[in-house]
Amino acid sequence: MSTLDLFGDAPPSDEDKARDVARAAELRALLHHHAHCYYTLDAPEVPDAEYDRLFRDLQVLETAHPELLTPDSPTQRVGGKVLDAFASVQHRVPMLSIRTETDTEASGAEAFDARVRKELNLSEAEPAVQYVAELKFDGLAMSLRYENGVLVQAATRGDGETGEEVTANIRTIGQIPLRLPADAPPVLEVRGEVYMRRDDFEKLNERQRARIAAGMKGEKTFVNPRNAAAGAVRQLDSGIAAERPLSFFAYGWGDMTPAAEGGPVWGTHFEALQQLKSWGFPVAEQTSCVQGAAGLVGFHQRMAAERDALPYDIDGVVYKVNRLDWQQQLGFVTREPRWAVAHKYPAQEEMTTVLAIDVQVGRTGKLTPVAKLAPVFVGGVTVTNATLHNELEARRKDVRVGDTVIVRRAGDVIPEVVSVVLDKRPAGAELFTMMSHCPVCGSLAEREEGEADHRCTGGLFCSAQRKQAVWHFAHRRAMDIEGLGDKLVDQLVDSGQVNTLADLYHLQLDTLANMDRMAEKSAVNLLDALEKSKQATLPRFVFGLGIRHVGEATAKELARHFGQLAAIMDASEDALLQVPDVGPIVAHSIHTFFAQAHNREVVQALRDAGIHWPEGDALAPTEMPLAGLTVVLTGTLQSMGRDEAKDKLEALGAKVAGSVSKKTSYVVAGAEAGSKLDKAQALGIKVLDDAGLAMLLNGEKP
Ligand code: IVH
Question: Cβ distance 48 to 347 under 8 Å?
Answer without folding.
Answer: yes
